[in-house]
Specification:
Blueprint: H1 18-28, E1 34-35, H2 50-59, H3 73-85, E2 96-100, H4 101-113, E3 119-124, H5 129-136, E4 140-147, E5 153-154, H6 156-162, E6 167-173, H7 185-198, E7 201-205, E8 230-235, E9 247-253, H8 260-272, H9 278-281, H10 284-288, H11 292-298, H12 303-315, E10 321-322, E11 331-332, E12 335-336, H13 338-341, H14 346-357, E13 359-360, E14 362-363, E15 375-378, H15 383-397
């Protein structure tokens, strides 16, 4: 028998795991399934902005050959100017790596850093890319709690309690996936102070920084920590609705003098794959010069804004569900009254909902949440369709008991 590697034992991808497989089986049988599992705007009729389309079509011939292993110069220059505008100091295009999505770059950054048994602090709940990548790199993700009672902000005391002699870095996902929380300056400064005290690298995942609503300001972690090594991750998948382009980047900033060897490791990882997709790099300057198409989606009357409002209105009607309203992205993370519904398995709840109402949601355990009392809703269908889906969840819960 040929077995999978032991380091995959704890790796999970519930967004495209057993629930996904079951939903695909149902679809093949002719059952219509509403897929609220993944943040893929194109599935729900979102189209790329004209700025992106024109940049791609008018420059395609420039992407025929391999490009620089860090990325095309014009793309890295545009990224550099964008992050300077967010307050990150003393960076140049040479500090930027473009990758095939943030997923590839996270893997590169952790593989270059972690030895067997090294630890990295990750938020709970969080997008499982980070914990999975830590396991695959041979490290150990250690979860710190984000507190629902405090707008899903990280629990600073829990962070401090989780630091050991093996801790190498702390991950901040801001805006957060799956909660949609946006962290204030004071909280970021407190986390930075902890990293400074314990000499930790900060990995700041800011992929949703342009999808912030309600007048809330997003603050880039690295802008507050010029004396620390911070690696900032961002990309165009969500803000310009081009997930399939796999267009992400990371910016290395702050105190890099003691990290030359680590940075050389990242360079090695980047060199192994020759370069990232050159075709999609062509659109980066045009996209970052086009904030208006993104703002239109998140302003009152825009699709993402109105979809959130429709979702929250219907959730508030359901007895046995509570939910902190998101401030960014297109996710909410509702809480179930597990005593009322006698829920002991969030995975069973998700399968039962899929089978009865043909709605595919991801249980909280898919985001490294330890209790069976949460699930994530992707708010990408049109407002009326979302409202009906949430209403159907409420109808399902009227009689549901495990």
């Amino acid at each position: 028998m040929i077995n999978r590697a032991e380091k995959l034992e704890h790796v999970h991808s519930d967004i495209r795991g057993p629930l996904y497989t079951e939903s695909q089986r149902m679809i093949k049988e002719g059952i219509s399934v509403l897929r609220l599992n993944t943040g893929n705007p194109a599935t729900f009729g979102f189209e790329m902005p004209d700025s992106v389309r024109n940049a791609l079509l008018n420059n395609a011939d420039k992407a025929v050959g391999y490009c620089d292993l860090k990325g095309m110069p014009a793309a890295r220059q545009a990224i550099c100017e964008y992050h300077k505008g967010k307050g990150i100091q003393n960076i140049t295009p040479d500090d930027i790596y473009i990758g095939n999505g943030v997923s590839e770059l996270v893997s590169m950054a952790l593989t270059a850093l972690l030895n067997s048994g090294d630890e990295i602090l990750c938020p709970a709940p969080s997008y499982s890319l980070w914990t999975n990548s830590a396991y695959i790199a041979g490290g150990k993700p250690v979860l710190y709690t984000c507190d629902e009672k405090s707008d899903w902000f990280p629990d600073l005391n829990d962070i401090r309690a989780k630091i050991t002699s093996r801790t190498r870095a702390i991950v901040i996902i801001n805006p957060n996936n799956p909660t949609g929380a946006v962290y204030p300056k004071e909280l970021l400064e407190d986390i930075i102070a902890i990293a400074r005290e314990h000499n930790l690298i900060i990995f700041s995942d800011e992929i949703y920084d342009r999808l912030v609503m309600d007048g809330v300001e997003h603050i880039s972690t690295a802008s507050l920590a010029p004396d620390l090594m911070v690696v900032t991750f961002n990309g165009l998948s969500k803000s310009h609705v081009i997930c399939g382009f796999r267009c992400g980047w990371m910016v290395i900033s702050g105190s890099k003098g003691k990290a030359d060897d680590y940075i050389e490791g990242i360079f090695q990882m980047a060199a192994m794959r020759l370069c990232s997709n050159a075709l999609t790099q062509l659109v980066i300057p045009a996209a970052l010069n086009d904030p208006d198409s993104t703002k239109a989606m998140i302003s009152p009357g825009g699709r993402i804004y109105e979809q959130r409002e429709a979702t929250m209105r219907e959730l508030e009607k359901i007895e046995g569900i509570s939910c902190v309203k998101n401030k960014a992205a297109f996710y909410v993370f509702p809480k179930l009254d597990v005593k009322k519904f006698n829920i002991t398995s969030d995975k069973k709840f998700a399968f039962d909902l899929l089978h009865e109402k043909h709605i595919f949601i991801v249980p909280g355990s898919g985001f490294d949440w330890q209790e069976p009392d949460h699930f994530r809703i992707v708010m990408l269908p049109e407002p009326n369709e979302l409202a009906k889906a949430v209403s159907d969840i409420g109808d399902f819960l009227k009689t549901y008991r495990q």
